[in-house]
Amino acid sequence: MSPILGVWASAQQSAFVVGDYESIATITANGTSQSLTFSSIPQTYTHLQIRGIAQASYSSNDYGSIGVRLNGDTGSNYTRHGIKGNGTSATSFGITSTTFAECGDGAYLNTGTTVGTSVITILDYTNTNKNTTVRGFSGTDNNGIGSIALGSGLWLNTAAITSVTIYQQNANFTDKTTFALYGIKGN
Amino acid sequence: MPKTYEPIATQTLGSAAASVTFSSIPSTYTDLVLVVNAKAQSSDLYPQYKLNTSTTLSRTYVYGDGTTAGSGRSSDNYIVGTNQVYASGFLFNAICHFMNYANTTTYKTVLVRNNNASRGSEGLVSMWRSTDAINSIEYYASGNFDVGSTFTLYGIKAA
């Protein structure tokens, strides 16, 4: 792809192989559910990545967590830990035997034009020799309040991942919420 | 499945410069990713980005510098940058995710990872209080980026 943008410094085309990162599906919420599910995920990639923006109808000027559940498992079969910053202090969190892998506070808890955002990576998702690891980078900022987190979660199950549910524990996702699923191929 | 994560443009500095700008960004992608691998020329600097000149940017960040973990925020600004100064002579890298950048119904959110061997690591979330699509990104610093610094903009398109 040739450069098509205006540039103000010396520029050169970089070598890049397109083809290892593919778009699988996109889901936009309709205001009736606290969860969105990607199902029938192809088993032809090495890793998955989910990218999106989120808002939940909770009527507060606050932020809420984005969680991940795998293969429809709502049991206490996850652990999660990470670091968060709320604009005042940094805190470390670690929870075992929980019902979802937390990825950070990537949902804005109100309607309007503010949204939170998340980049979630599920590693080696078809491998049946190990439990599945989820990595989250997620946050919300609303000009005076906010939260940013780097989180990691573990699903205590070695099954290949065929469905991923994005979950908000406070309220239904509004129609400004959209998540896209991508597959990353390995060699 | 459609292949994506395409390079839009790369800028490699042939001479030291205080900023690089990507303009006329097409609105055909879902997210933009700006990958920076750079070095300060001769003085410490704070890398940051700007989307327009209004004071409508804000941020919340968390960082660790090997001694301290902390968090902070800033509001009503026209720039968003790292909390940490990047010392001259050390490479730093930044990965900036401009999420759903072309939609015209929400404010724009940006996730940034900043890493520097001499200083530490940082995660940052930023909001641009505008429903306009992002069509230009200026990445700059208080000093000069050194020769050889690279800045690559990628586009990711959802199905």
How are the strands ordered across the major sheet of chain A?
Answer: 2-15-4-11-12-13-7-8
Largest sheet of chain A: 8 strands, antiparallel
User: Structural class, from helix and strand content of chain B?
Assistant: mainly beta
Structural class of chain A: mainly beta
Mean pLDDT of chain B: 89
Nutshell version of this structure?
By secondary structure, chain A is mostly beta strands.
What does it look like?
The complex is a heterodimer of chains A (187) and B (159). With 187 residues, chain A is mainly β. Chain A has strands at residues 6-7, 21-28, 35-38, 47-54, 63-64, 67-70, 78-85, 90-98, 101-102, 107-108, 116-123, 132-141, 146-155, 164-167, 178-184. In chain A, the strands form three sheets. An eight-stranded antiparallel beta sheet of chain A has the order 2-15-4-11-12-13-7-8, with no helix packed on it. A four-stranded antiparallel beta sheet of chain A has the order 3-14-6-9, with no helix packed on it. In chain A, strands 5-10 form a two-stranded antiparallel sheet. In chain A, a hairpin with a 4-residue loop joins strand 7 and strand 8 (90-98). The two termini of chain A are 23 Å apart. In chain B, a hairpin with an 8-residue loop joins strand 8 and strand 9 (108-116). Chain B is mostly beta strands. At the A-B interface, strand 1, strand 2, strand 4, strand 7 and strand 11 of A face strand 1, strand 2, strand 5, strand 6 and strand 9 of B.
